[in-house]
Amino acid sequence: MTTQKYVQFFRETSPYIHAHRGKTFVIAMSGEAVLDANFDSIVHDIALMQSLGVNIVLVHGARPQIDQRLQLAGLQSDFREQVRITDASAMQCVKEAVGSTRFQIESALSMGLPNSPMHGARVRVIGGNFITAKPVGIREGVDFQRAGEIRRIDRTAIQQQLEAGALVLMSSIGFSPTGEAFNLSYQDVATQTAIALRAEKLILVTEAAGIIDADNNLQRNLSLPQVSDLKATLKHADGQDSATYSLLSAAYQACRNNVDRVHLVGCSEDGSLLSELFTREGSGTLIMQDHSEVIRAATIDDVGGILDLISPLEQQGILVKRSRELLETEISRFMLVVHPEGTLLGCAALYPIADSAAGELACVATHPEFHNQGIASRLLKSIEQDAIENQLKTLFVLTTQTAHWFREQGFAEAAVSELPAEKQSLYNYQRQSRIFSKKL
Ligand SMILES: CC(C)(COP(=O)(O)OP(=O)(O)OC[C@H]1O[C@@H](n2cnc3c(N)ncnc32)[C@H](O)[C@@H]1OP(=O)(O)O)[C@@H](O)C(=O)NCCC(=O)NCCS
After folding, report:
1. What is this structure's pTM?
2. Among 29, 171, 306, 358, whose Cα sits 20 to 30 Å from the Cα of 298?
3. How far is the CA of 384 from the centre of ligand 1 (A)?
4. Are residues 411 and 435 in the same domain?
5. CB atoms < 10 A from the CB of 374, how many?
6. Range of the domain at 281
7. What atom in ligand 1 is closest to the CA of residue 373?
């Protein structure tokens, strides 16, 4: 990377650095992620995030490590709905495997060799009896023995450690008031901790790169209703035992309980954590708390709703007039934000400009009763994502009254001569619109 490109890249990450500083992220790392060849890099990236001011709670699993210990001890254990039936001998293996995995993570976080990314990091790792557990008990006649559930998370104690600048490392073992240790699901620990801390993010680092759909495409964003539908499909297809099902359940539970964003990130791709959190493109799947809306492409049935929304703005001269016929022809260009009950909250259109790698953003409007709730910003993000997927490099917008809003969204003023030829010839000098552009 040339110095100039590096500087540009570093500057582009700054909005994320500012946004994440002082926020609490709970990162759940599966036992498989700890075994992955990329493990050291993940730990380095976590240390880097902490030095950028993010409060980090790291929760680790140890399923393959436990399996290995059990095998060495000649023991077997069964699962019911992803819960390991843990007898006393198995619990011994759980303690050994969890303990040694924990030490492996602590060692990696303690690295500090010169010429390594950890030089000068000085991460202070803290753990403790933050989780009160209770036995799962007997279900449908099966005694789960030392398999446990979370009863309480000591939010204050964790918060104090974060405020003191420590990285809190939590393992998947909890203790009951009777003084016994219980084997917990690390995803549960992470989810309940994120909820208890009211964390800004829960990040699940797992073997899969995120949620992959039936056509083998990575799902970049999922709304809560989509997660719910996916869970129902999976439950029907594989029962509740698939790893994806339990990831989606964790994400769903966290989002329903006021964790705003859950990220699913793959452990094997180098830098996936940083690119998910510090770039616009991301690398995994983002599941967002329900904003009570869906962003989707418009269909012919939406023409009436769009006309209702934009006609008053056309009359005020804020938007260029479009006839119903034109709108019907161009409907596929429109993206909408729609309330689950069907109200149209906002619209925007993307027109690719012929013979160029540029597009024109047009007809951006939010329903007047829903202004200042980030609707247009979210719509713009989605349009930009679309434009990137369609290999567009630049977005142009022409505006008479909304220049400042576009500037705040990262657009910069441009001259007529910077417009692609096709657009220049159509520029209306009477309307005197200002031109803005944004590099994608
Ligand atoms: C511009 C518009 C689309 C923004 O919609 P929105 O969903 O309210 O936007 P967001 O919630 O993402 O952003 C709101 C922020 O932008 C600011 N903003 C809104 N209109 C603005 C304008 N014309 N100039 C500068 N800032 C503006 C708000 O004050 C708010 O800032 P704050 O969060 O600091 O209070 C909406 O005001 C609208 O429909 N305007 C009329 C149509 C229009 O001008 N379209 C552009 C045509 S090119």
Report:
1. 0.66
2. 358
3. 17
4. yes
5. 12
6. 3-288
7. 11
